[in-house]
# Entry
Amino acid sequence: MEWIVLAFMSAIFSAIATIFEKKNLFTLDALQFSFVLALLNMVFSIPFFYDVDFATISTTSLFVLYLKTILGALAFLCVMLAIKNMDISGSLPLLVLTPGLVAIFAFLFIDESLSTFEIVGMFLLLIGTYFLEAKPGYNLLYPFKVFYKSKYHHYIIFALLLFTITAILDKVLLKKYQLPPHAFLGFQQIFLAFNFLIIVLFAKKNPVMLIKSIDKQIWGWILVTSILSVGYRYTQIEAVKLAPVALVLSVKRTSVFFAAIGGGKIFNETNLLKKALATAIMIAGAIFIVNN
# Structure
C-alpha cells in the first residue's frame, strides 16, 4: 500500500477519534475517560508485540520511554481537560504549535540551527494562532489576554510544553536507542495505562468504581475511540516504514483540520470559517518546519 494512503488513513482515524473523545467528555470527566481509554488502548496494542525481537530492546531505552510516558500521560490529561471545556475547533488547532516549540527547544538546548523555512513556519504558526483567538470588536491584545486569563488555555500551553519534550524523546528513542517502532507503541501503551492508574490513585479515586460507573451505552463510544486511536498509530508507523517521517507527519497533521472543522460542525460551534482559515495557516507553518 502507498505510504500516502496509510498516512491519510492515519489522519482520518485520528480526526474521528478526537471527535469521539469530545463526545465522550460530554458524559465523563477528563481523568475517568483518560484512564479507561488508556486501559483499552493497552489491550488493543498487545498485537504489536508479536513482531518484536525483545533481545534488541535495552533496559535504558525502556526507562527513557517510561519517563516519556509520564509526561505524555499528563499532556493527554491536559488536552482532555481543554477539549472538555472548550470548543474543539478552538482548542485542537493550538496543538499544531508543537513543531515550532520543538524547533525552538532544539535551537536553545541541543545547538540545532534554525533554517529560513523553520523561521517562516514559526511566523505562520504565530499568525494562525493570533487569527484563531482574535474576535471582531475586541482590541488587538485580546488573543494575548485569552492565553493569560483562561485556565483552559493554560492546560493547552502546559500540554504543548510536555509534547515538545516527548517529541524530542521520541527522536532519541527511535534514533539513538534504535527502539523498534512496534515495541515503542506496545510498551508505551502499557506504561500509559500504569501511569493513569497512579494518577487515579493519587487523586484518591477508586479505579474499579470509575470503570463500573460508566453507562453501558458509553462503553460503545469509548471502545470505538480506542480502536480508532490504535488504528491511527498503527497506520502512521506503517507509513513511516515506506516514506520519510517528515512527509508522513505533514499528511498526518491534516487530522487537526478535519477534527476541528468536522467536530465544530457536529457540535454546532461558531466562527468555523475563521477557525478553518487559521487552522490551515498553522498547519502550513508546521509543514514548513517538519519538512525542512
User: Anything to note?
Assistant: The two ends are 26 Å apart (CA to CA). The chain has a mean pLDDT of 85.
